[in-house]
């Protein structure tokens, strides 16, 4: 028979269960609470196509004022046609051009900028032995240093508005894969920078979110493995008689591009998932610090990220197919 004392002993456990259930229900609801961002100003980089172009459209639909940084005149025209208020066309690694564009931003938003989306990025795949050093430099300039430079210029305007920074990295920013070292290095660096930025700007309640898209159907992904030929040929011009050609032969290259391109096409997903995550990071009352965008990001790459390193190493090694001439020097 239960006594009053035993009933009292059971009460804390019951309250704990009720509290846990309430917390589990409240968390998703809390994340769905959105702000009214209509009329606010936002800067988005890399708006010529893909994710950036989609973010411009999504923000315009929400009634915001968007300044779309583009690389081409066609991209600028498309952004303006989509409803962007301004579309500066520039090489984002050119500091003079960047500062000129930021002057336009300040004049347009009156020093009150609610968000910056760092989306511009480039990739140049190819294995380390035939990667020219200039590829590393160019990729770092676009994928890292342009983020640092633009952020430093715009911090006062974002801080004044209590705004947010969104840094689009990649699943390659949490898991480095073979055949893409310059890109992966730049994305890992951007992750570290975003983490430091988040801590520093939290003093003024300025949010910083990171977006980690997996393979999405964008122009960058569509031409990804094909551009490994450009890398191979660039190294051939620099070192036409190098031993690297005995390992990574032209015959191997063509098979690699063909097989990997087919695999990429099978897993590529609609970029809408990343676009919606970026929008959430800008408009949610409680944005997340990190968004894994896409099914592969939430499953395969998340697993690679958290599993023991020896396990992930074994899986990455299997991803190098077809094999190059591994008999050389063995």
Tell me what you see in this structure:
The protein has 330 residues and is an alpha/beta fold. It is 56% helix and 8% strand. It has a 6-stranded parallel sheet, sandwiched between helices. Strand 4 (164-168), helix 6 and strand 5 (207-213) form a beta-alpha-beta unit.
Could you write a compact summary of the structure shown?
The chain is α/β, with parallel strands linked by helices and 330 residues long.
Relevant terms:
330 residues, Rossmann fold, 6 strands, six-stranded parallel beta sheet, alpha/beta, globular, 13 helices
Structural class: alpha/beta
What separation lies between the terminal Cα atoms? 77 Å
Helix content: 55-70%
Order of helices and strands: HEHEHHEHEHEHHHHHEHH
Strand arrangement, major sheet: 2-1-3-4-5-6
Q: Provide the CATH superfamily of the domain at 36-216 and 271-314.
A: NAD(P)-binding Rossmann-like Domain
CATH topology of the domain at 36-216 and 271-314, what is it called? Rossmann fold
Beta-strand segment tally: 6
CATH class of the domain at 36-216 and 271-314: Alpha Beta
Report the radius of gyration as a whole number of Å.
23 Å
The chain-level mean pLDDT equals 93
């Amino acid at each position: 028979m239960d006594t009053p004392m035993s009933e009292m002993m059971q009460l804390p456990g019951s309250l704990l269960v009720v509290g846990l259930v309430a917390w589990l229900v409240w968390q998703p609801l809390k994340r769905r609470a959105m702000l009214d961002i209509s009329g606010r100003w936002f800067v988005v980089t890399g708006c010529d196509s893909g994710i950036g172009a989609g973010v411009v459209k999504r923000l315009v639909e929400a009634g915001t004022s968007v300044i779309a940084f583009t690389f081409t005149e066609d991209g600028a025209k498309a952004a303006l046609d989509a409803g962007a208020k301004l579309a500066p066309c520039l090489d984002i690694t050119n500091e003079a051009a960047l500062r000129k564009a930021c002057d336009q931003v300040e004049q347009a938003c009156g020093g009150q900028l609610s968000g910056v989306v760092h989306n511009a990025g480039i990739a140049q795949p190819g294995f380390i032995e035939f990667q020219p050093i200039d590829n590393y430099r160019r990729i770092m300039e676009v994928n890292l240093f342009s983020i640092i430079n633009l952020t430093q210029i715009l911090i006062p305007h974002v801080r004044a508005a209590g705004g947010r920074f969104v840094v689009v990295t990649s699943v390659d920013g949490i898991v480095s894969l073979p055949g893409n070292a310059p890109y992966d290095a730049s994305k890992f660096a951007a992750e570290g920078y975003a983490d430091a930025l988040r801590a520093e700007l939290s003093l003024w309640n300025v949010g910083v979110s990171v977006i980690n898209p997996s393979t999405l159907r964008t122009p960058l992904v569509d031409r990804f493995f094909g551009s490994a030929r450009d890398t191979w040929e660039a190294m051939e011009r620099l070192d036409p008689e190098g031993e690297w050609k005995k390992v990574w032969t032209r015959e191997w290259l063509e098979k690699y591009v063909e097989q990997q391109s087919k695999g990429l096409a099978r897993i590529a997903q609609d970029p809408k998932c990343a676009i919606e995550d970026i929008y959430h990071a800008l408009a949610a009352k409680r944005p997340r610090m990190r968004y894994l965008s896409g099914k592969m990001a939430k499953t395969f790459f998340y697993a690679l990220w958290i599993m023991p390193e020896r396990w992930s190493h074994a899986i990455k090694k299997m991803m190098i197919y077809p094999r190059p001439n591994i008999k050389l020097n063995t």
